[in-house]
UniProtKB/TrEMBL annotation:
<feature type="domain" description="Molybdopterin dinucleotide-binding">
    <location>
        <begin position="621"/>
        <end position="737"/>
    </location>
</feature>
<dbReference type="Pfam" id="PF01568">
    <property type="entry name" value="Molydop_binding"/>
</dbReference>
<keyword id="KW-0479">Metal-binding</keyword>
<dbReference type="InterPro" id="IPR006656">
    <property type="entry name" value="Mopterin_OxRdtase"/>
</dbReference>
<dbReference type="InterPro" id="IPR050612">
    <property type="entry name" value="Prok_Mopterin_Oxidored"/>
</dbReference>
<protein>
    <submittedName>
        <fullName>Molybdopterin guanine dinucleotide-containing S/N-oxide reductase</fullName>
    </submittedName>
</protein>
<dbReference type="InterPro" id="IPR041460">
    <property type="entry name" value="Molybdopterin_N"/>
</dbReference>
<dbReference type="InterPro" id="IPR009010">
    <property type="entry name" value="Asp_de-COase-like_dom_sf"/>
</dbReference>
<keyword id="KW-0500">Molybdenum</keyword>
<dbReference type="Pfam" id="PF00384">
    <property type="entry name" value="Molybdopterin"/>
</dbReference>
<feature type="domain" description="Molybdopterin oxidoreductase">
    <location>
        <begin position="52"/>
        <end position="509"/>
    </location>
</feature>
<comment type="similarity">
    <text>Belongs to the prokaryotic molybdopterin-containing oxidoreductase family.</text>
</comment>
<dbReference type="Pfam" id="PF18364">
    <property type="entry name" value="Molybdopterin_N"/>
</dbReference>
<feature type="domain" description="Molybdopterin oxidoreductase N-terminal">
    <location>
        <begin position="9"/>
        <end position="48"/>
    </location>
</feature>
<dbReference type="InterPro" id="IPR006657">
    <property type="entry name" value="MoPterin_dinucl-bd_dom"/>
</dbReference>
<dbReference type="InterPro" id="IPR041954">
    <property type="entry name" value="CT_DMSOR/BSOR/TMAOR"/>
</dbReference>
<keyword id="KW-0560">Oxidoreductase</keyword>
Length: 763
């Protein structure tokens, strides 16, 4: 067969080259990637899969009875319509809602990862469209990833981006770090992914090099494989959600044995004395000593004391997976991790201190690109109303109700139309049965999708979008040295159109085409976005090829900034000249600002608090619903790598042999996971890589109700979000708490319902 002509492209899970060999798409990772991700191999099967959406469709009830609240979403038949009909109907509905309710009646948060190209980035497109062609929308703030950290870090250390992305680099760890305390690990399956594209997966190699130099890694968490073999880590099994208690225990040993760095605490921090009163039990009569911590987290007290003693006096880095704060009181481990690093006197030293989310995504621990990278301007949104992103069901179910957020008393807006492009709430949101009830409240749900996700199935108007392989674009991000000319690799699937073309056609119907497009087609925009980077390179006297040359070369190496340790490094070198952008200009071990909010669930210093959701009674196991190794979230669940990892069509749940034995569950059995909120099936895999009492089922298997008419249908495929609790981390940040849930597991003995998640709806 012919050797394919390979063209460059990029994805959130890696830069690659691809071409056709007969009917098969061949995908090869970028030659300079030392550790490419297997997720790339989801593309060949996905590109022409039956799960793709072929044509615009409208829900029958919406067509026949018009917009309005209904529980028929996800239940009614979908009817194929022509593009012109779909666009006319949608433009009319946008106008109706705007005239009747104002743009405050439109929710355009549209959270989701979309695809890597900077121009066709669906979330940027929908925001630009709603701002320019409709006049604004209710937005969402923060992320599912880091809802709690987004809000607390600026109060205690500094803005999220500079203190996460630019503080400690992998290069510095290889050179300087003596001990890494990795809470939640740094799973290389997670750093496989970075928004905008990753050309070099360096994490595994960096851990190997650091370990070879003598750096020790300690992994605290429920799973042994959250650090790669190469780190040579010691696993300290820790009961989920108890990191704050463990860290307090470590801090107690440091404080009582005089191992804490008092000079650092005095000069660089505020609030240590107040925190110490709590730590030593002067305020509440409870010393947070190693024995106290051990009773909560399960790590033996003498091991806690030994770790604290070992950490004092060497270059220590405290890292923490995003997952820790995607849970009840998620603010606390973030705050306490920083306090631990402060007590060790390490904050701001090369390779030391605190690096929130290092290893959780490929963006962290990298040097920054020294010139601006492409991004689509989104226009101005005059609407003030917003929600913390994970409060979507609360908003739709309780219009007008009050809620707290970061010191503000806010109310939920009254949303009539929800517009989604580039995200999958039936993947990302918690308590999906509740989400279905929430979506039943609106007049209209509009979805652009390239595949038949459950979100698309619940829409009133579904518009088929091209996937990245079917478009030209630029791949780039502020933490990757390569800008990629993403060439088109396939024609659009069936009638699919680019989000941009869909929005341009809608803008035309709303009399705003020229304003939305600025007279450019997609290629025109890509050249326009490239020009900003080219001009910045030319200004620095660096090679700055014209667009045609860049496009032919397929990529451009970008200059990187020096590794200076960012704002935290500068503060450590000279705290008076470079104060932190916190209220005190220092590290805030206690925060007067947060204390003044008066939140019972987020007091003024790191605090251990009891949780609502804990295993016991009818739900005795912890479910860890973490990131999937074989795909990004729910994207291309039907691709080869993802589909190939399932067993009998179901997502695989890991369980400790002791827990499996107690339930008569054997390797490969189909099991039912359930709690008061819902139930799903999965295939069991027995493993000693997790703690007893913990089961693990990754996110991303498409929601597949056995009978859509049920109020709480069984998901036959294995989506853990039918089980998770839909509650905010605290009144401070209202972040998502989807990581940890109490469940029961039993062997499934009924007739096994077929998985239909990837079959298109009949219509
Ligand atoms: N229980 C639990 N839940 C979680 C998490 C957890 O740990 N536990 N993790 C959370 C986290 S961190 C996150 S970030 C979220 C992720 O949640 P999402 O970002 O919503 O998940 P994705 O599956 O990436 O959804 C992206 C969707 O966009 C579509 N898409 C891709 N490209 C395009 C395009 O060009 N145009 C259009 N129109 N559509 C496109 C894809 O087909 C896909 O359906 O999930 C969260 N949910
Ligand atoms: N392959 C792949 N990579 C991804 C993604 C993906 O979908 N697929 N998603 C990306 C996105 S958007 C994000 S935000 C990041 C998310 O990054 P993370 O949130 O860090 O990723 P998770 O896999 O959810 O969690 C990491 C590990 O934390 C451990 N853990 C859970 N709860 C606790 C706890 O209470 N204490 C401790 N110590 N450990 C705990 C679990 O064992 C879990 O495996 O991942 C990114 N990387
Ligand atoms: Mo995320």
């Amino acid at each position: 067969m012919d050797v394919p002509d390979l063209k460059p492209h990029s994805s959130h899970w890696g830069v690659f080259r691809a071409g056709w060999q007969g009917d098969t798409l061949v995908v090869e990772p970028h030659p300079s990637d030392p550790d490419p991700s297997a997720i790339l191999q989801n593309f060949p099967e996905a590109v022409r899969h039956r799960a793709r959406i072929a044509q615009p469709m409208v829900r029958r009830g919406w067509l026949e009875h018009g917009p309005g609240p209904t529980d028929r979403r996800g239940r009614d038949e979908l009817v194929p319509v022509s593009w012109d009909r779909a666009l006319d109907l949608l433009a009319g509905e946008l106008r109706r809602v705007r005239d009747a309710h104002g743009v405050e009646g439109i929710f355009g948060g549209s959270y989701g990862w979309s695809s890597a190209g900077r121009f066709h980035h669906a979330q940027s497109q929908v925001h630009r469209f709603l701002n320019i062609a409709v006049g604004g929308y209710v937005r969402s703030v923060n992320s599912y990833s880091a809802g709690a950290a987004n809000v607390i870090l600026p109060h205690i250390l500094g803005p999220f981006e500079p203190v996460t992305r630019h503080s400690v680099t992998w290069e510095a760890i290889v050179q300087h770090t003596g001990l890494v305390l990795a809470f939640g690990g740094m799973a290389v399956r997670n750093s496989a992914v970075g928004g905008g594209g990753v050309s070099r997966h360096v994490e595994r190699g960096a851990m190997r090099e650091a370990a070879a130099r003598g750096c020790r890694f300690l992994l605290f968490g429920p799973l042994r494989d959250d650090l790669p073999q190469e780190a040579g880590a010691e696993w300290v099994p820790l009961s989920p959600g108890t990191d704050t208690a463990l860290m307090l225990g470590l801090a107690h040993t440091l404080a009582t044995e005089g191992l804490h760095d008092r000079a650092f605490l005095d000069r660089f921090c505020v609030g240590y004395p107040e925190f110490e009163d709590y730590l030593l039990g002067r305020t509440d009569g409870v010393a947070k000593d190693a024995a106290w911590a051990s009773a909560i987290c399960g790590v033996p007290a003498d091991q806690i004391m030994a770790i604290a003693r070992q950490a004092a006096g060497q270059r220590v880095l405290v890292t923490m997976a995003h997952s820790l704060q995607r849970a009840e009181h998620g603010e606390q481990p973030v705050w306490m991790g920083m306090v631990l690093a402060a007590m060790l006197g390490q904050i701001g030293l090369p390779g030391g201190g605190f690096n929130y989310a290092l290893g959780s995504i490929a963006h962290y621990g990298k040097r920054m690109v020294a010139v601006p990278v492409a991004g689509l301007p989104q226009g101005r949104n005059p609407v003030r109303a917003f929600i913390p992103v994970a409060r979507i069901s609360d908003m739709l179910l309780n219009p007008g109700a009050p809620f707290d957020y970061n010191g503000q008393a806010l109310t939920y807006p009254d949303v009539k139309l929800v517009y989604w492009a580039g995200g999958n709430p039936f993947h990302h949101h918690q308590d999906l049965n509740r989400l279905r009830e929430a979506f039943a409240k609106v007049d209209t749900l509009v979805v652009h999708e390239s595949a038949w996700t459950a979100t698309a199935r619940h829409a009133d108007i579904v518009l088929p979008a091209t996937m990245t392989l079917e478009r030209e674009d630029i791949g780039a991000t502020t933490t990757d040295p390569l800008m990629v000319a993403m060439h088109r690799l396939a024609p659009p699937f069936a009638e699919a159109r680019d989000d941009y073309d869909i929005f341009a056609a809608l803008a035309e119907r709303l009399g705003k085409r020229e304003e939305f497009t600025e007279g450019r087609d997609a290629r025109g925009w890509i050249e326009h976005l490239y020009e900003r980077t080219r001009a910045a390179l030319a200004e620095k006297n660096l090679p700055a090829p014209d667009f045609e040359t860049f496009w032919q070369q397929g990529e451009l190496e970008m200059p990187l900034e020096e590794d200076t340790g960012g704002i935290v490094g500068a503060f450590r070198r000279d705290p008076e000249a470079a104060p932190l952008p916190t209220p005190s200009g220092k590290v805030e071990i206690a925060s007067a600002t947060i204390a003044a909010f008066g939140y019972d669930d987020c007091p003024g210093h790191p605090t251990w608090m009891d949780r609502v959701e804990v295993p016991g009674g009818e739900a005795p196991l912890w479910l860890v619903a973490n990131q999937p190794a074989t795909r990004l979230h729910s994207q291309l669940d039907f691709g080869g790598t993802s589909a190939g990892s399932k067993h009998r069509g179901r997502e695989v749940m890991r369980i400790h042999p002791t827990d499996a034995g107690a339930r008569g569950v054997a390797e490969g059995d189909i099991v039912r996971l359930f709690n008061q909120r819902g139930a799903c099936l999965a295939a069991a895999a027995l493993s000693e890589d997790l703690m007893p009492g913990v089961v693990q089922l990754p996110t991303g298997a498409w929601y597949d109700p056995a009978d859509a008419e049920d109020a709480k249908p069984l998901c036959v495929h294995g989506n853990p979000n039918v089980l998770t609790r839909d509650a905010g981390t605290s009144r401070l940040s209202q972040g998502c708490t989807g990581q940890l849930t109490a469940v029961q597991v039993e062997r499934f003995t009924g007739n096994l319902p077929p998985v239909k998640a990837w079959d298109p709806p009949v219509g």
